């Protein structure tokens, strides 16, 4: 599964590569002008790639991370 930024802002990741995650777990937060939006996992799995650095700027639709099978 690929996880994308919901809108433009600054991203903070809350997981690491290799970490096992569950459905609904908060993976990252995107912040823009005092608005913070959690990015949650749509299903269980393992983080296989983090495509952005913490506190980097993203635009809506940018790839944040990838999740492999559990």
From TrEMBL:
SUPFAM superfamilies: Single hybrid motif. It comes from the Bacteria. InterPro entries: Biotin_lipoyl, Single_hybrid_motif. Transmembrane segments: none annotated. Residues 9-67 form the Lipoyl-binding domain. Gene3D superfamilies: 2.40.50.100. Pfam families: Biotin_lipoyl (PF00364). This is Acetyl-CoA carboxylase biotin carboxyl carrier protein subunit. It comes from Corynebacterium accolens.
């Amino acid at each position: 599964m690929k996880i994308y930024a919901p809108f433009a802002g600054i991203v903070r990741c809350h997981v690491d590569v290799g970490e096992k995650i569950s459905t609904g777990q908060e993976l990252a937060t995107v912040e823009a002008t005092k608005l913070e939006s959690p990015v949650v996992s749509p299903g269980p799995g393992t983080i296989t790639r983090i495509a952005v650095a913490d506190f980097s700027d993203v635009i809506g639709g940018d790839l944040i991370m990838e999740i492999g099978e559990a």
